[in-house]
Structures are given as structure tokens and as C-alpha cells.
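Entry for guanosine-5'-triphosphate complex. Fields follow.
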Amino acid sequence: MFIDRAKIKLKAGDGGNGVTAFRREKFVPRGGPSGGDGGVGGDVWMESDEGLNTLLHLRYNPEHKAERGHHGEGSNRSGKDGESITVRLPVGTQVFDAETNELLFDFTEPGQRYLAAKGGKGGWGNAHFATPTRRAPRFHYTGRPGNEKELQLELKLIADVGLVGFPNAGKSTLISVISAAKPKIADYPFTTLEPNLGVVDMGDFKTFVVADIPGLIEGASTGAGLGDRFLRHVERTKIILHLVDVSSASGRDPVEDYRIINRELAGYSQDLAERPQIIVATKIDALDDPSRRDDLRDRAKKDRTPFFEISAVANIGTKELVDAVAKRLDENEASRTNAA
Ligand SMILES: Nc1nc2c(ncn2[C@@H]2O[C@H](COP(=O)(O)OP(=O)(O)OP(=O)(O)O)[C@@H](O)[C@H]2O)c(=O)[nH]1
Ligand SMILES: [Mg+2]
């Protein structure tokens, strides 16, 4: 199961208390105030870490507390500050206040740090309050409480490529063939209920990440079927592979399928509707009526969208498709680097 949401509780350390104390020295009848201040409580930081891909580690470990400041002591000794802690998150995590839903921080790069909960200040000891007219203050302050936060974390998969299409179009079969992902595959709609991530290995340490999401149907953007909420997993992808079953198994028209899915993408966001697509005709091993493929190819030509035909099961055309995707991503990368 792919987990991309987690609620966590953070508690920064309370400040240590100040203390009331007086010097005791031999032969000095009344020493001055000497109560030290409390230490500052530890902070809770968050940091993005390239090595993480999910929020799973936080699901099982949702509470994080930093150490409190130590109390002050006599002889003007301040308490030690509490140790700060750091919660690690995958790149792509957005941090929301769980109560107000306000976006507090968006981790877009590795190594970013965010101070999520600040430790409480230490209280002053009585030495701090001594003045010429008040030589023996008999009071101190207690430490301030550390910040407490309840946060909702949301990880949008940072996949490079998103697979979209009707249920049964062959999305999971494709990801299972081009990556090590082993999603459930079956001959009924809505087999995939949670997104699957797959890493495609191009050799020479080159990889790209593909997201297989549950199928869309007409009206998905207004809640039909499983709705369109899984589209948030392809929101940040660079390319959409739009899979269309061209065998007669679907009982629908491929060009019509293609139009419907595009309409649902637009219903979700204009941005997604304008994302570069590659149209992929699937199941060509079972192509019983070639005009179904040809019509879709014509449509692709009209829309000036690259078109590929594959059979994931018979392993036809998948290598060409993967190469084209990798090339396209390389070009993206190059144009981004040039622009920077
Ligand atoms: N003949 C043939 N059948 C295929 C091919 N690819 C997938 N199928 C079959 O089509 C059915 C659906 O495949 P899935 O990969 O589960 O489809 P999906 O798009 O992930 O479907 P959902 O998860 O329901 O959205 C399965 O029975 C597959 O075996 C193919 O290239 N050729
Ligand atoms: Mg599937």
C-alpha cells in the first residue's frame, strides 16, 4: 500500500524553571541571590531527505518530542538547554496545520529545514531580579511551555510520468512490465485502488518514476467512480501517458475514451489538461479492428500529440515507448538547465 498522508504531533521542549537560591558562604551572614535561569527547551525541526519516498515511517511513529530545558541551579548556574530534534521527510511533502489547514511549508528540494515547533524560553532565576533596592528577591519564573503542533503531512508523489486512462486500459500491466512494481492486475474495472509507483531503470544510473493511478471514468471530476482525487499524484509529473484500449474488449470507442479522459483532466485542473501527453494505444496484440487504432492515431496527429502502440502482455512497442519517454524527460531537463 502506498501511503501519502500522515498526521503527526510535535512538542517542543518546555523551558526549564528558574530557581530561588541564596549564596551561602562561611562567615557571610546573608549572601545575595544566586538562583540561575532555566535552559531553553529543544526545538522540533523538519528536514527533507532524498533517501525517503513515503511518509510510512511517520505513520508508525506519529509523536515527536524535543527535550525540555533543564532547571536553573544555585550558584548562578543556568540549566542546560534541551536537545533539539529533527523529523525527516521525503522531498515533495507539504506541511499543513491540522486544525486550520493552512499550508505551513512545502519541501521542494532535499536539505530544506523548517522550524516546526519552537522550544520554550527558560524562566529567570531570582539572581536575575536583584536590584539595588531589592537585594533579596524571593521569587523566580517558571519556564515557558514549548510550542505544540498537530500537523497534516501530504506527500504528492514526485513521479516524472503519470499513467491515466479508463479502468482496464492496461495501466498496471504496463508499469509491471517497465518497472519492478508488482501491482494487482485483473480483468475488471477499478482493480487499482491506490496509486503505485514504479522506477524505470534506463541503465547508466538513469531512472524515471512512473505513477500508476486508479482508472478514471466519465464524470470522475465530479465524483463518479473513484473520483479524480488520485490525480493529485500526477499533478507534478512532467508527462502524462494517456492509455487507450484499442482492442474491442472495452466495448467503447477509443477516440471517445480519449476525449472523455481529457475532459476529466480539464475538469480537475487546466494545468493538468495542458501537460504534455503521449497517447498510448494498448492491447494491440488483441487488435481485432485496426480502424479503432487508426482513428486514434489520426486524432493524435490532429492534436499534434505523439502516438505509440503497445502490447504490454506480448511486449510489443514498450521499449520504444520507454525510450521516447526518457528522451522527452532529458529534453525537459536540458531546457530547464538552460533556462536557469
Ligand atoms: N491482450 C492484452 N491484454 C492486456 C494487455 N494489457 C493489459 N491487459 C489486460 O487488461 C486487463 C486490465 O489490465 P490492468 O493492467 O489491470 O488495467 P488497469 O488500467 O490498471 O485497470 P484499473 O486498475 O482497473 O484502472 C487485464 O486483464 C490485463 O491482463 C495487453 O497488452 N494485451
Ligand atoms: Mg490498475
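NOTE: The longest strand covers residues 148-155.
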